[in-house]
């Protein structure tokens, strides 16, 4: 279990995270959701170990990792821009990390991941020959071969559209379930967070507005922020769709 207790973080005297306490169970998918600038990426970076907390503790399975270096934590991230190596092909990208730590995944495990992510036919392609969804899958495979104890994803769907987005969502869920892998995802999109995660952490101005399962957030929003930020956005989306149907129906009737 990952446990954050009373985490605080300021940059240049400006408080970004005031008091964040949360627990993430083994194998759980948790989304960190909130408006732009609320501190989502900062929280992810604190967990990863590239940003240091001003106060509070980060423990994993009872071990205090608050001051542990990133490499010691064994967590791994897929960045928003995928950060793939443009001069290497897909297979070389996927297996790059194994050069320094051979044996961490067997050849069979690498092949299984490639299969799970549907990348067999792309292995010899260069990165610039791939679509956004394909790049995202390569980035996921590259991270997964290193067998992270926790998988961190920064806006994994933001550059993708429609059908591709749904397919990557399914693959993230499949990977988390298949490998019983604790997965923490940053997103600003309520629909994404609610449909992808077991639990959603909603941040408002550096504090937790609500931390709960999607059904509770929708049915029992705990405060106005959750009601307005999350539920209003969903309602606007829904109304937009219904408005289209309404317009269409009215058009046909006329
Ligand atoms: N290294 C840094 N130095 C100074 N300020 C920073 C640093 N990192 C983040 N901030 C500030 O902290 C605040 C929160 O940033 P953060 O990137 O965590 O927000 P976010 O919720 O992920 O936003 P977005 O959805 O727009 O990516 C912002 O005001 C940002 O300018």
Automatic annotation (TrEMBL):
ABC transporter domain location: 2-230
InterPro entries, per the entry: AAA+_ATPase (IPR003593), ABC_SmlMolc_Importer (IPR050093), ABC_transporter-like_ATP-bd (IPR003439), ABC_transporter-like_CS (IPR017871), P-loop_NTPase (IPR027417)
Keywords: ATP-binding, Nucleotide-binding, Transport
EC number: 7.6.2.9
Listed GO MF terms: ABC-type quaternary ammonium compound transporting activity; ATP binding; ATP hydrolysis activity
Any one Pfam family match given in the protein's UniProt record, by short name: ABC_tran
Gene3D superfamilies, per database record: P-loop containing nucleotide triphosphate hydrolases
Protein name stated in the entry: ABC-type quaternary amine transporter
């Amino acid at each position: 279990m990952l446990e954050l207790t009373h985490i605080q973080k300021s940059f240049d005297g400006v408080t970004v995270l005031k008091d964040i306490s949360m627990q993430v169970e083994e194998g759980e998918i948790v989304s960190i959701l909130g408006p732009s600038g609320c501190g989502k990426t900062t929280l992810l970076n604190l967990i990863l170990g590239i940003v240091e907390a001003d106060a509070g503790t980060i423990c994993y399975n009872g071990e205090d990792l608050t001051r542990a270096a990133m490499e010691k934590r064994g967590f791994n991230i897929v960045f928003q821009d995928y950060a793939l190596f443009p001069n290497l092909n897909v297979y070389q990208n996927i297996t790059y990390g194994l050069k320094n730590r051979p044996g961490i995944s067997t050849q069979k495990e690498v092949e299984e991941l490639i299969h799970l992510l549907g990348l067999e036919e792309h292995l010899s392609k260069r990165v610039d020959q791939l679509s956004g969804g394909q790049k995202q899958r390569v980035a996921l495979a590259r991270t997964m071969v290193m067998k992270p104890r926790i998988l961190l994803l920064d806006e994994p769907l933001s550059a993708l559209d429609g059908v591709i987005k749904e397919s990557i969502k399914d693959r993230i869920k499949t990977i988390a379930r298949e490998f019983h892998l604790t997965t923490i995802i940053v997103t600003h999109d309520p629909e994404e967070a609610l449909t992808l995660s077991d639990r959603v952490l909603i941040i408002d101005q550096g504090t937790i507005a609500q931390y709960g399962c999607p059904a509770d957030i929708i049915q029992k929003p705990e405060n106005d922020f959750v009601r307005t930020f999350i539920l209003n956005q969903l309602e606007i989306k829904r109304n937009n769709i219904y408005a289209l149907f309404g317009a269409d129906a009215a058009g046909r009737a006329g």
